[in-house]
Design brief:
single chain; alpha/beta; 40% helix; globular
Length: 210
């Protein structure tokens, strides 16, 4: 449910376009967990980050219905490319239709399957990586992709505040919360990177590889 603060932020940010509105609507109609969608504010943030960093090769782990990949594709240069990973093959038709409507299908390659297996087969280097997939596997994703990121490259990780569970007392011990907590601790203590957590939606960690 949208709070007054959420509404104020959304209405004072550049609005999403027609294609993104279509993806959001279809996500609400055709999926069981529409809350997983990035949304207009986070989507605009993704577009601007790609533009500001001049990223041309992007990796997305967990594309869901393709909304966030579309936002990032809007920020790419003409020759830019995204490798988008998604485990749920039932979403493929919706993903591809949204990308076609957005006019960015030629910029994205969809990889259906387990992200860990796909990561092992993909060659870098990547300028920008966005992670929004199985929270239990965040640490594994990070280990698998780190050497594929260019020095100075960015890794953006979603849901790191996890509805406040990660700083609750005591911290819940379900596997998702344990996975995110372990990831947050790991990157905060990794001397190879610089990190900052941003309280956008359910928390975004911005990681810069030194």
């Amino acid at each position: 449910m949208e709070t007054p603060l959420d509404r104020y932020i959304r209405t004072h940010s550049t609005p999403q376009g027609e294609a993104l509105e279509w993806i959001e609507k279809q996500t609400n109609i055709r999926t069981n967990y529409p809350r997983m969608l990035s949304g207009a504010v986070q989507g605009r943030f993704l577009t601007m980050l790609v533009e500001l960093t001049h990223a041309s090769r992007i990796l997305e782990i967990g594309t869901f219905t393709g909304y966030s990949a579309t936002c990032m594709a809007y920020g790419l240069p003409q020759d830019g490319h995204i490798d988008a990973l998604e485990i749920n093959d039932e979403l493929e038709d919706l993903i591809r239709e949204g990308w076609e409507r957005a006019g960015i299908s030629d910029k994205i390659e969809l990889h259906i399957g387990d992200a860990r297996a796909t990561l092992k087969s993909l060659d870098g280097p990547f300028d920008f990586i966005y992670i929004d997939a199985n929270k239990r596997e965040y640490c594994e994703y990070f280990d698998l992709l780190f050497d594929k990121v260019v020095p100075g490259g960015l890794i953006l990780v979603d849901d790191v505040l996890w509805d406040g569970k990660v700083y609750a007392d005591p911290v819940p011990q379900d596997k998702q919360t344990v996975g995110i907590t372990a990831f947050n601790d790991m990157v905060a203590n990794d001397p190879r990177v610089e990190t900052v957590i941003l309280p956008i939606r359910d928390g975004l960690t911005l990681i810069r590889k030194k």
